[in-house]
Design brief:
7-stranded antiparallel sheet; globular; Cathepsin B, Chain A; 9 strands; two-stranded antiparallel ribbon
Length: 238
Amino acid sequence: MRAKFAIGLIISLTLLAGGRAAGETLPLSPGLIGLDSDEGEALLFGAEAREDYLPLSLQFVTQQNQAFCGVASMVMVLNALNIGAPEPTAWKPFTAFNQENFFSAKTEAVVPRAVIERMGMTLTELGGLPVSFDLASSVNHASDSTIEDFRHRARDAIATDDSFLIINYLRSAIGQEKYGHISPLAAYDEDSDRFLILDVSRYKYPPVWVETATLFAAMNTPDRDNENKSRGFVIVSR
């Protein structure tokens, strides 16, 4: 099993590196550990919960514009769950979700594409989208939760291959630039108490390991675009 994971890790790291836009990513603050470092790779090998890592990394996409972090995150989750997708003309006869065919009349009823393109999406809107694809969704505002509850629920979601967790957090609160952002979590290392964020803005930052306390604080921040409710996390499952 370890050898199989090692092979998968090499493939996924190659894919993640290939998703990097030209040029250098921004430097990481001292509290973050990049997955593309020796320490970051070691954390992944030793992680107690990492079942979501391979399916997400193999379906990794970089958000196609700076407002599509939620769209890109959902596309990764939909493909990782192997949900039946519309047929993209360019890939015919093969099917997969992308950041164009993701949109439908059902998603428009939750949050119009024009709104997302202008201002991204809120946690509430993100949590409403899985229903458009007949999936279950649990929306959790950090202010209504605790760090212990988040750690437990996130670890459990990551440890199974039929549920995925997407976070909505304030970048500046973890030492990044600088506004609200959305990305999936892919692994949890108990010894360091860190979660791995597969950042969909691959042109800006690599996937990073962040301490649970720091991550929870970044989610427990008000979002003025969502009636000043706190950010938080969404668990998507079949």
